[in-house]
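Handout, section 3.2

Students often ask what a structure token actually looks like in practice. Rather than define it abstractly, here is a full record for Sulfate transport system permease protein CysW. The first block is the sequence as you would receive it.
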Amino acid sequence: MQSFASEFNQAITLIFLGDSELWAIVLLSLQVSIFAVLISALIGMPVGAALAVARFPGRRVLIVLMNALMGFPPVVVGLLVYLTLSRSGPLGVLELLYTPTAMIIAQVVLVTPIVAALTRQVVEMLAEEYSEQLRSLGVSRLASVPVLLWDARIALVTALLAGFGRAIAEVGAVIIVGGNINHVTRVMTTTIALETSKGNLALALALGAILIGIAVAVNAMVSALSLRAEEEGLRHA
């Protein structure tokens, strides 16, 4: 008990005294996950919105596939990205393996299906609600996508936060493609796994506390945005 209390006190000290190593790891984690979510938004939102409004053969198959990719095992994603970026892979010439860029790519593969699936659900509901108005104005299905995305902006921010929560907590894929290299690709989750195995619980606890704090903050923002969306829906009703 005394040992745990000592480690916990050291963890608190690391956080509040601004330990340079700890905050460098936190900063890299945030940079990788934020970039991954932004790229996922650029890909996933248009794809999700297009699937919501378009009607073509095989649409249901694509939706089922997209929903299935939401639960794709992270270690498998890491393996596939590793094979793609390795020297013998199709993108090996870029020499991206064991870099933050490789970690961003792995997180984009994981987060994009989440953003796309949630976007499709939101936009599809709005498209059904506004279908008569859009038809009366002569707006085509694809032309309605920007309008629907703007109207769903609050719900879409919630989708991005959900994607960020998945990215920031990821360990399996990023450790495979990043290699957990000190001062290069070591992020919060991989550092927690490494330091725990080494018995350095103070740093692991400090990073764990920060990661929990980020998770709580993200969930609080999701709840606040969901409540705001409900209030706006009631006002428009």
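Discussion prompt for tutorial groups: The chain has a mean pLDDT of 87. How would you have guessed this from the sequence alone?
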